[in-house]
# Entry
Amino acid sequence: MDNGDALPGGKSSPRRRFQKRCMLEVLSVCLIIAIITIALVFAITHQKRLFTSISGPKIGSNFADPCFIEVDGKYYAFATNKFVKPHSSQANVQVATSDNFKKWNLTGIDALPDAGAWATGDAIWGPDVVQLNDGTFVMYYSAQHILSIQQHCVGGATSNVIEGPYLPLSTPLACPLSHGGAIDPDGFKDVDGSRYFVYKVDGNSLNPRTHTQNPTPLMLQAVDPTDGISLIGSPIKLLDHQERDGPLIEGPSLTRVNGSGPLEGVDIYVLFFSSNVFTSKFYNVNYATSTNGIRGPYVRGEKPLLQTGDNNGQLYGPGGLDVGLDGQKVVFHSGIRRTSFIRGMWIGDIVVDNRSISI
# Structure
């Protein structure tokens, strides 16, 4: 047995003390490196992203779930009613206009003074307006159903002029009350002239009753391209929520772009949607893409397109994104003064690079 490192009396030799000191220094360096690495990872994953292509709020009052359309060189935006308290005197569907997409002004017009005989007339949410081939307009919207005020259904209304008033149909277009109802419709015209609207089955409206998380699928419904309101066939499911989405996904909006590079000649369908609850800071904007037609399957993007903290902390609970016919211009809402109960309208431009979307 070698006792060369021990001295009489059990004291350590200089060599042993040197080895211990070296080991402590190495451990100290490793600990410092680990701390720096963790700090860098935290900083990267929690950084406040800055997007120069978005700006706002362009409407600083409550203008949630906005949509927009360009007609004869002028832009029109429509939004959820300003307040959702019963018998509110506010407009059912707000309207704002812009000559250049940058500066917006509220008109004070109620585009949908009557939500239809099937609706209570309160809580009109998430409108979208499309122009038909004959120049007339269709508005899709959701409203409380008189038979179940905890649930909404998707309705349709028509007008000869863009700002309305829109006249509602006598019955809703999508009304799966037993599954929670339907909200957040969004119209879409495909390159071949076919027309659709997408919407959310509002399954989470049943959660308090069932004490479980219900499905909230995003559905695609074909309609007659001549009138935009006559249903063709049954709706099909495009996407449903996953664990990372919290209890729901909602607010769908569709666009189609041409693929490039390895996807040249391929139609790429982009489905934008929001995840989580709109009253929380976790509300965000996501997207999924399909290269196999409008019916999918849709593949989700790796990370949210917009989230709380973006734009140097200016965005809070961004959601309700709507994309224009050009596949570039978008509008969306974000909480004012870090609250989701007042949601102003922002604008932006997206860039689609095959399956990757940026803003």
In short: The chain has three helices and 22 strands.
